[in-house]
Amino acid sequence: MTATATPATGEYFGLAIPFMSFIGLVPESIAPAYARTSLPWRQDLTNSRGDVHGGTLMSVLDFTLSAAARGSADATEGMATIDMNTTFLSPGTGDLVIEARCLRRGGSIAFCEGDIRRADGELVARATATFKIIRRRPGGD
């Protein structure tokens, strides 16, 4: 696994993703079929109970799972989320770690799963997702 940029650079495993930078997601490592990120706790990311908001949790899962589907810093491929199912198991309190794995990758579709855990190891959320692989063409969009 290789370390990569910090959110201050706005680069996430070879891609510029302003929203991930805005919420403070930290890209930690990427390898074939694997990605790991972390989300430092911030009050402005919380709900009325002081836990990290479920929408924030789903956003960081979506990005980290898609990074595992790419499996490298190759920015010539994009991932479009087809489907994502998230189960929330405990409150997202404190700093969080997000780990994702690509279970199967075909020619145009990738299937992934991932977890969010608190610093004490408690499972916060688990997600599965299906992504369409988008190959960017030189000169295309």
UniProtKB/TrEMBL annotation:
Its recorded name reads Thioesterase domain-containing protein
Specify the domain of life of the species encoding this protein.
Answer: Bacteria
Provide the coiled-coil residue spans.
none
Q: Which residues form the Thioesterase domain?
A: 50-125
The answer on whether this UniProt entry bears the keyword Transmembrane reads: yes
**Where are the bilayer-spanning segments?**
12-35
| PANTHER family in the cross-refs | ACYL-COENZYME A THIOESTERASE 13, THIOESTERASE SUPERFAMILY MEMBER-RELATED
Specify whether Transmembrane helix is a keyword of the entry: yes
UniProt organism field: Achromobacter dolens
Classification via Pfam families: 4HBT
This entry's Gene Ontology molecular function terms read: fatty acyl-CoA hydrolase activity
